[in-house]
Amino acid sequence: MMKTRVSPFWRFTALCSCFVLLLPAADPALTIYNQNFAVIRETLPLNLTAGNNAFDFTGVTAQVEPDSVILRNPANSQPVQVLEQNYRNDPISQERLLNLYEGKTIDFITGAQADGTPILVKGKIIRSGYVPHYQAMARYGVNYQNNQAAMVSGGAGQPVIEVDGKLRFTLPGQPIFPTLGDDTILKPALDWILYSPQAARFDAELSYISGGLSWSSDYNIVASDTSDTVDLVGWVTLDNQSGKQFDRAHIKLMAGDVNKVQPTSQQFGGRGGGGVIGGIMAQTPQVTEKTFEDYHLYTLPQPTTLHDRETKQVELLRAAAVQSKRVYIYDGMQSTQNYNAYQDIRQVQQYGTQSNPHVWVMREFVNSLANHLGVPLPAGRVRFYRRDQDGGQVEFTGENQIEHTAKDETVRVYTGNAFDITGERRQTKFQSDMRQPGGYVDESFEIKLRNHKTEPATVRVVEHLYRWSNWVIVQESAKHRQTDSKTMEYDVTLQPDEERTVTYTAHYTW
Length: 510
Prior knowledge:
The chain is built from three helices and 32 strands. The chain folds into three domains: 8-91 and 184-211; 94-176, no CATH class; 214-509, no CATH class. The relative contact order is 0.12. With 510 residues, the protein is mainly beta. It has helices at 8-13, 94-100, 137-156, and strands at 19-22, 29-33, 37-48, 51-57, 70-72, 81-88, 105-112, 118-127, 160-163, 166-168, 174-176, 189-196, 200-211, 213-223, 229-240, 246-255, 276-277, 280-281, 288-292, 295-299, 304-306, 310-331, 358-366, 380-387, 394-402, 410-433, 440-451, 457-464, 471-476, 481-484, 487-494, 498-509.
């Protein structure tokens, strides 16, 4: 039997004398975080009478967090007291209307006569097959999700229609509904009952958090064919999967790791010439950046329309003649080897002796104003290209990810393994005395590097002193540079077709 449903209109008119459909009064503003959510702000005109007022706003997203909604008067001259808020996100569909008409008889189109007149049969909706509230899974957890899935697999997702006294588990045809029904909506909506002690008219600010909006950054770096200066173009990619279109939105992007509680269950570029200031092209409006608490806030230079289900690219920055260098790094210890975490590696002679044959190719540049940059770079993918001497065509040379990088820090990106430079590392001595205290380990290594290129190359050899925290180098073939408490480096320059060997002995004590 179909339950009697009270229209929101009549429910609200029992509280006040008017029902108002709210429409935004100004362009929306979005602050999008790179964690798949955003803060959305709208301006809504309110015309309050003394007492209770009912308002309906159908401009929210399909992924709004209802308990994050804030409705306030920016001028604070008239506070807004929300007595009741109702969020509806079950827009009308065939399944929803079948649910609303359960227990009633409607017409179904089963075909057409020769003259095109539709053939109708009457069917009583015993069960609609509508299983609601899948979006509540995130709020109510795995048990709710399992119960809903059990309802569907148990047959609750199948409609039951009575035609001529017989039951069918499928629709007999295309259903024809008399009306939409009293308790239906066409878009996700917020219904409010607002109290005001006196009549007032002002523009209220509505803000809320919504999922389905995200952004990411990408960088394209092009090196010339004769030098290591590069041109850099940064892009921001905006992705709107929120279920709402934003017209002429003022957009800000928040970069940083903002903590947000997650639900417990799963839910469904060329060189610059004139007009360049500090390497940033000044002919067109640019994205501006500022520090916001412990994060960085980027503001797009002009309003933009962000359609639902749309991915949009906006230029973040453009810099020319950035000084960069290609670095070859040989970290000879094979990092993929495993060992027992509870075992004392001072006693394991074989640990750290498996050799890595690859010499890494790294690109690095300083994110400084002197180097035509000097702006915080949000995390993203960096793609490297180099112009070929034959015709100046751009060729792809590698890519990787960078983390959020503050200004004046060095960006260092692994782009691949060198083809013509190889390395080899082997242990040549291991001697230990495990007495406590007074024990020691002496360990020696030999690192061989070979350059098969037609030009000289400098390789940065990285060695990890992993046996113990107290160590000293008692013998070495070249002067090392200590970079932290357990790491040292050697710089080795190789001429074309040259092989060079680096040796050292580390003495650990405890």
